[in-house]
UniProtKB/TrEMBL annotation:
Organism: Candidimonas nitroreducens
InterPro entries tied to this protein: Alkaline_phosphatase_core_sf, Sulfatase_N
Domain Sulfatase N-terminal: 8-383
Keyword Mitochondrion: no
Organism lineage string: Bacteria, Pseudomonadati, Pseudomonadota, Betaproteobacteria, Burkholderiales
SUPFAM superfamilies assigned to the protein according to its UniProt record, in alphabetical order: Alkaline phosphatase-like (SSF53649)
Name of protein: Sulfatase N-terminal domain-containing protein
Single GO molecular function: metal ion binding
């Protein structure tokens, strides 16, 4: 009898709040990520990879639909994703896979056709249609909390209690103390255990697993020994103006960010505003963040080791990335709700097991890539068609040593600061809801940030890589400003929704244009 074809698996890993310089394989990084570095040495690293938007729900909408924010319309956590859009799970189902979810997708379902009392109307953490949730971990991760109770911890259903530190010594920073639970009982270890159980009984068949790890998302706390793995004195100084007041004076939106970014959002029992934390506390927070990254790296190491042990590593496309970055004190901010690059520049490692990718293993490229490229890449690898809704492009050519002379020469990201169910920047600035948009153009030498109703920002990265000196009002940069504005306008025009735009009714029926080679075919 003929032997069965070898399985073709896809492991799609997303860490939350993981900024680009928190990967050891990146030049100059302080991060200790030995397992991810080993994967990078056998894969392709994309040095200039950018998330599409922030916060989590908009970012994941782009990542999982392959669409820019101005097309999918998810502006904030809680904004519904229209049911008409396809996504990576639906398309992988059409390709014959059963899309398994471990973690979350941060999706608000389309309310049209759903009743007002439907539980989906009360959460932005529903499951993206098409996924089969093998392990669902939302903001109240009940399966993990139940597991912790089985291990003898007395947290019950109180996730806030689970993330309070075990002890805190007098005078130490608020994020230094270890978590109460052991590293082997962490939510990252719990997810990895479930994922390994899933894979262990599917070694002879193809599978697609999306593993969404919550860490290093706040609260900033790490299990022992990761909480003390980094010395705060070794942490790089944040990129920011001399004082928070000077930073606030640089732009109206930044002023609102600094006035509403509270410590309680980032560590348990935090008090006051983030901008007022001491330098020593910020250095400790940075050290804790890197410890959290190393803690997740250990779990990914377990995962990759098992793939190798089970003979699956060379039959699995491995994609490891993030939804968005983390300010980590740069510009006096924590989190990601701002227009600066640290919130959007994220890691991307792709390991293609095909022999055709051998020449690129262990290399890094500097072309601009974006989160919208992930869905086309995965679909291309499994041999599925890429939906016309996708704004991104497959990276398979880069993985297999081919260059594209027409590849983008810039990265783009969007951010919308309209209010949600509570007042925020929109109210503070007194703006209409639909005039709270931000769009950024990241070129080789410039970063241009355009605001719908506020002054623009322009940074000359040649002399100001930290983006501390806004030159938008400098007349000597007038030509650069015009060029950037024109580029953004063309980008939005070129990437406007296109699902049906290549079709035209004719006397002979529906004519369908091929966007790649402009050929014409009948319906």
């Amino acid at each position: 009898m003929p032997s069965s074809p070898a399985p073709r698996n896809v492991l799609f890993v997303v860490l939350d709040h993981w900024r680009a310089d928190a990967l050891g394989a990146m030049a100059g990084s302080l991060a200790k990520t030995p397992h991810l570095d080993a994967l990078a040495a056998d894969a392709l690293v994309f040095q200039r990879h950018f998330g599409q938007c922030a916060p989590c729900a908009p970012a994941r909408a782009s990542l999982l639909t392959g669409m820019y924010q101005h097309n999918h319309g998810v502006k904030r956590n809680g904004t519904p994703l229209a049911a008409e859009f396809t996504n990576i799970a639906v398309e992988m189902s059409n390709a014959g896979y059963v899309p398994a979810l471990f973690g979350y997708t941060d999706t608000t379902l389309d309310p049209r056709g759903l009743g007002a009392n439907n539980p989906a109307m009360h959460s932005y953490e529903s499951v993206l249609p098409g996924f089969f949730p093998e392990l669902l971990l939302t903001d109240v991760p009940s399966p993990w909390l139940a597991y912790l109770e089985e291990q003898g911890y007395a947290f019950g259903t109180d996730v806030q209690a689970a993330y309070r530190p075990a002890t805190r010594m007098p005078g130490e920073g608020p994020t230094r103390a270890a978590a109460q639970f052991k590293a082997e009982h962490s939510i990252s270890a719990f997810l990895t255990d479930a994922l390994l159980r899933f894979i262990s009984v599917r070694r002879e068949q193809s599978w697609f697993a999306h593993a969404a790890y919550i860490k290093p998302h706040p609260p900033f706390i790490a299990s022992a020994p990761y909480n003390e793995m980094y010395n705060p004195a070794d942490m790089a100084k944040p990129l920011r103006k001399a004082t928070a007041e000077q930073e606030a004076a640089s732009h109206p939106l930044i002023d609102t960010c600094l006035r509403r970014t509270r410590a309680a959002h980032y560590w348990r029992d935090g008090e006051g505003l983030v901008k007022d934390m001491s330098d020593s506390d910020l250095a400790q927070l940075r050290a804790t963040y890197y410890g959290m990254v190393t803690e997740v790296d250990a779990q990914l190491g377990r995962l990759i080791a098992k793939l190798k042990e089970w003979g699956l590593y060379d039959h699995t496309l491995v994609v490891v990335t993030s939804d968005h970055g983390e300010q980590l004190g740069d510009h006096w901010l924590l989190g990601k709700e701002c227009p600066f690059e640290q919130s959007y520049h994220i890691p991307l490692i792709v390991r293609d097991p095909a022999n055709a990718a051998d020449a690129t293993r262990g290399t890094q490229i500097r072309q601009f890539t974006e989160a919208v490229d992930i869905m086309p890449t995965i679909l291309d690898w499994v041999g599925a068609a890429v939906p016309r809704q996708c704004d991104g492009h497959t990276l398979l050519g880069f993985l297999r040593g081919r260059t594209d002379s027409n590849w983008r020469d810039a990265a783009h990201w969007e951010y919308d600061y309209r209010d949600t169910w509570v007042p925020g920047a929109e109210t503070m600035l007194g703006l209409p809801m639909d005039r709270c948009g931000v769009v950024a153009l990241r070129l080789q030498n410039f970063l241009y940030i355009h605001f719908s109703a506020l002054p623009p920002l322009l940074y000359d990265l040649r002399s100001d890589p930290g983006c501390l000196d806004n030159v938008a009002a400098d007349s000597s940069y007038a030509r650069v400003m015009l060029d950037c504005a024109q580029r953004l306008l063309s980008w939005q025009m070129d990437s406007s929704r296109r699902e049906l735009t290549g079709m035209c009714a004719s006397p002979n029926g529906m004519v369908v244009r091929d966007p790649v080679n402009a050929s014409v075919s009948g319906s």
